[in-house]
Amino acid sequence: MLKTLVIDAEKCAGCRTCETICSFYHEKEINPKKSRIRIVKWEEAGLDVPMVCQQCESPICKTVCPEKAILRNQETGAMLIDTNVCIGCKMCVMACPFGAASINPDTKKTIKCDLCDGDPQCVKYCPSGALDYVATTKATMAKKRKAAERFGELVKKLVTP
Amino acid sequence: MYGWAGNILRVNLSEEKIEKQPLPEELRTKFIGGRGINVKILFDEIKAGIDPFDPENRLIFGTGVLTGTFAAGAGRFNVTAKSPLGYLGDGNCGGHWAPELKFAGYDHIVIWGKAKKPVYLWISDDEVELRDAQHLWGTDTWVTQRMLREEIEDEEIQVACIGQAGENLVRIANVRTGLKHAAGRTGTGGVMGSKLLKAIAVSGNQGIKIADPERFMEAAKKARARLEDWQYIFGAKSPQGGTYGQLYYRHNNASMQAVKHQQTGYFDKADMLDPKIFFEKYVTKMQGCFACPWCCTPFFRITDEPYKGMVGSGPEYEHFASFGSSPYVSDLLTVLKASQLSDQYGFDCDSGGRIIAFAMELYEKGIISEKDVGFPLLWGDGKAVLKLIEMIAKREGFGDILAEGEVKAAKRIGRGADKYVLTNKNMEQHEPVRAIVGHSLSQSTSSRGPDHLRGAYHAERDMDPMDAKKLNLNPDPLSYDNKASGVIFYESNAMIADMLETCKFQSTWLSIHFLDAELWAELFSSATGVKTSAGELLRAGERGYNVERAFIAREGVRRKDDIPPWREFEEPYPNGPHQGAVLDRKKYEAMLDEYYKLHGWDVKTGIPSKKKLEELGLADIARNLEENGLYKE
């Protein structure tokens, strides 16, 4: 069953646990600059936004890759980079509208989220519930429910004598 | 190197010389990191009796082995120097600055000398330089960080800085990072200001290498699993988290709330500052320090006049004790504004709140008047509190006197103000402790002056009696029996947390169910590849604490400095659940004897014995104390 990485920026605590786990899982060292997920902050507004590959349906990264190094994992839906084929031309880095493809400073090749083969580590360790990995068909239900609560409050007020 | 970054950065501001040196093995083995290594360097490199604002004073920043990892809350660092109050300057700070320093490749920064003009230190891996900060001088900590991110064109840099309080050598000023994180107490921000160093901006591009990744992952998972439930109590998933949400009423009900300069320990207007109000009305979400599994910092936006639209971070329980109960203020918005001001000015909330309460007591007793201050100083006057914060931070008018700390302020005022000084080792008394005896011992003996972050006897407040029994702790707050050994237990655990630089709240220092010496040893060994054990870590904790004790002894601290202020013995609580409680001087002295004996310190003077120091592998410290004449007494 296809799942989606769902992000709720309103819940993000800006702790960056995801950045440590991601880099450690993939690179065996702790280095936020090698993490596939990064938190973008506006400190004085109290805003923390997790930014990660959106695993687009029509991925621009795949389109621009001259070596066909980016391919879909049919099980997880993730776009994977074959680092053996990748020539480090950085066309995908330039083209991605989310900045989700970044450059590994050691290998100089592209790194991006691969959904950890279907068991995303960032989701596991996020303390605030800002990251979730849910069935694609249910991905927006939590949000719908939260918004509906406001309507529910109104109805309760109207119905209760 | 694994775990540690492996380097000390040495900065001589007078000669504008910067040097990267390897972190010596002896320091790593004996003092582990963070606060432990910091204080050893401080002890070795300055002479007794120097003026804290002398360029020779060291200002030392220290991270730990676990800083930057995901073992637990791992964003912490210590700032250590000789305190402008006279003894040990040391503060522990959270946020995101410390990991960035490790990612840049440094465990510690040792700064001395004095710049010719205001500067900031820029660190980007091996690119380290001093840059002009004249345009930043005079700005508050929020503005400083914003301006540096703009001019360096990098929103991801982390900045540790001082505000106007540090620049003005206010003796209780802090080093700050983020919107609210502070290396609290003891005025190390003033030392930074005396060196004309405005900020340290860091960008790190390297990684922390772990010696045994699989084993470390298992240990970290274990640690986080132990902490998981408390997200719902203390952290992001709690409706009322953090220290304010969870500790406010606990302290009041134990009669250890600072009220009217310790005239009592029970705040009868506590309900007006009920955390529920704050959380329901103004908190938008919780935020967290680096890699923290809890995230206990509320971010708030005020929706009521006169501060509609004002945002802020924190505040902690301490802000409510400092700007609420201490000056007897019961207006929530005033306390929030005061917290924000103290964050922006880089002004310590704990010390600041007590000093303001001190001034209000002097006014109450007729020792100072409206003429001295410029306006009345009545208990509960929120506007007066806000004005004083600004005056102290800027050293304006009467604020210039209060900026000196309670002891020096009393000397300048004269007229019998001395009587109302409630300090210990020149630092403002933290909490009244008439009904919580173990805390009276831990706060009064604490190496940096009275505070709750060293030997705090948590068994008296939070612990399940069965847990207390397991650890041989006495949870009865009114008992003097078997308290000394517990204080030492908490001291060592706090020291380990500060050496490894994980959040001490997530350790045995707070609860038996969190990270303990065993798990810390496993995390340490798997991260560094260096074998250690729970016993060795506890030993290192004791060792580090003895260096702190040796330092303050060398500066003149003796037995009389380990005794609570007179009010704790002479004025029974006038109200609250422990009305009538007061400390018993004879019993306290006996408890202090026991404490010294267990520590291996001289019972008459409190000086660590040569034998004890040598036993702990501190023969060089013992020699130094001997050269300084401490063993002649």
What's this entry about, in short?
The complex is a heterodimer of chains A (161) and B (633). Chain A is of the alpha+beta class and 161 residues long. In chain A, 28% of the residues lie in helices and 20% in strands.
Number of β-strand runs of chain A: 9
Query: How many angstroms does the end-to-end distance of chain A come to?
Result: 46 Å
The CATH homologous superfamily name of the largest domain in chain B equals Aldehyde ferredoxin oxidoreductase, N-terminal domain
The structural class of chain B is alpha+beta
**How many domain modules of chain B?**
3
Category from helices, strands and their pairing of chain A? alpha+beta
Strand content of chain A: 15-25%
CATH architecture of the largest domain in chain A: 2-Layer Sandwich
Describe the main β-sheet of chain A briefly.
2 strands, antiparallel
Placed side by side, the strands forming the largest sheet of chain B appear as: 2-1-6-3-4-5
Q: Oligomer, anyone?
A: heterodimer
Largest sheet of chain B: 6 strands, mixed
Descriptive tags:
heterodimer; A: 161 residues; alpha+beta; Alpha-Beta Plaits; two-stranded antiparallel sheet; 28% helix; 20% strand; elongated; B: 633 residues; Aldehyde Ferredoxin Oxidoreductase Protein, subunit A, domain 2; Aldehyde Ferredoxin Oxidoreductase Protein, subunit A, domain 3; 6-stranded mixed beta sheet; 18 strands; 40% helix
Structural account:
The complex is a heterodimer of chains A (161) and B (633). Chain A is α+β, with helices and mostly antiparallel strands. Chain A has helices spanning 17-27, 60-64, 91-95, 121-125, 141-159; strands at residues 3-7, 29-30, 38-42, 47-51, 70-72, 79-81, 102-103, 110-111, 131-135. Chain A folds into 2 domains: 1-52 and 113-161, Alpha-Beta Plaits; 55-111, Alpha-Beta Plaits (2-Layer Sandwich), CATH 3.30.70. The longest helix of chain A has 19 residues, at 141-159. Chain B is an alpha+beta fold. Chain B has 3 domains: 7-203, Aldehyde ferredoxin oxidoreductase, N-terminal domain (Aldehyde Ferredoxin Oxidoreductase,  A, domain 1, 4-Layer Sandwich); 240-424, Aldehyde Ferredoxin Oxidoreductase Protein, subunit A, domain 2; 437-627, Aldehyde Ferredoxin Oxidoreductase Protein, subunit A, domain 3. Chain B has a 6-stranded mixed beta sheet with strand order 2-1-6-3-4-5. In chain B, helix 2 (34-45) crosses helix 19, helix 8 packs across helix 10 (317-325) and helix 10 (317-325) packs parallel to helix 12. The mean pLDDT of chain B is 96. The interface between A and B is large, with 31 and 41 residues.
